[in-house]
Amino acid sequence: MKAGLGRGFDSLIPTELFDDEFDLTAPEDKAGSELKEIPIDEIIRDEEQPRKEFTNEAIEALASSIKEHGVLQPIVVTKEEGKYKIVAGERRWRASKIAGLKKIPAIIRTLDLQNRLEISIIENAQREDLNAIELATAYAKLKAQFNLTAKEIAAKVGKSESSVFNTMRLLNFPDEIKKTIVKEKLSEGVMRPLVNADPVMVNKVLPKIIEEGWTARKVERYVSDNKKKSSASLIKKDAYHKEEDALSQKYGVVAKISGRSLTFKCKNEKELKELISKL
Questions:
Q1: pTM of the model
Q2: Which among 21, 34, 90, 128 is annotated as catalytic?
């Protein structure tokens, strides 16, 4: 995986914790898969898995998280010769061993079911009637449970790597926003500029997007303008700090500059008289 985009893709927490509500293959998956806790020592890694190296720092950090919160997302395995071979989740398995776990939650699938599910997810991801959150969830499942990179997913669904990455980012929205995206059939392009925006701004602009049919470009301008206003406000607010400090030190009272007004705050009448005599 390429640096930069790849690192960002791996850091998307929702790819590990996607919601079954938006997973179109969940019924088929649940009907054919078994979820149970498996003894750590009955699990083996896939020697053909292309990812061979894992940084000690990342594994140790995950082990600490597992000690505190447990394994949040089951690993995926297939049964082979009395053992369970890892399909996805080797990093979680390694960290769980370091954390001292004796068992780990796992989704057990047959190799045939694993292959059929992958084909089903890819076919769903290519449907034109899929909403943005369902599509993002399909990508998330391919990453978390099928060990696919953004580049590999893009090749399988006929999209660009950046398109896959940007769609996945929608999973960072709170649940209520994701449900609104689905209900109102909002596109990934329209919502993408708001992924990292302040939640207050998102809730404020969302009705406008829905009621007035805002384009992606208009949303981008809105976000950009609000950032400029916010930055200008901070600059204006901080512009006279040095002057306020200098005046406070000179006159022995608290000086405050607000807009075009300069005020002095005195503790008592004595301070007020002393200030008047100095002015």
A1: 0.71
A2: 90
Residue 273: closest CA among 254, 255, 251 = 251
Going 167 to 65 to 35 to 104, the CA torsion angle's sign is: positive
Q: For residue 46, with 0-12 CB atoms within 10 Å meaning exposed, 13-18 middle and 19 or more buried, which class applies?
A: middle
Token code pair at residue 148:
């696919």
Concerning whether 243 is annotated as a catalytic residue, the answer is no
Task: From first to last of the 279 residues of the chain, give the pLDDT tens digit.
Answer: 333 344 344 544 344 557 788 999 999 999 999 999 999 999 999 887 655 567 888 899 999 999 998 998 899 999 988 899 999 889 999 999 999 999 999 999 999 999 999 999 999 999 988 899 999 999 999 998 898 989 999 999 999 999 999 899 999 898 899 999 999 999 999 999 998 888 888 998 999 999 999 999 999 999 888 876 654 454 555 566 777 777 887 888 888 887 677 888 887 777 787 778 777
Q: Which two tokens stand for residue 93?
A: 């398995």
Candidate CATH numbers 1.10.8.420, 3.90.550.10, 3.30.70.100, 3.90.1530.30; the one for domain 5-165? 3.90.1530.30
**Contact (CB, 8 A) for 1 and 51:** no
The answer to whether 125 and 137 have CB atoms below 8 angstroms apart is no
The C-alpha atoms of residue 163 and residue 51 are separated, in whole angstroms, by 24
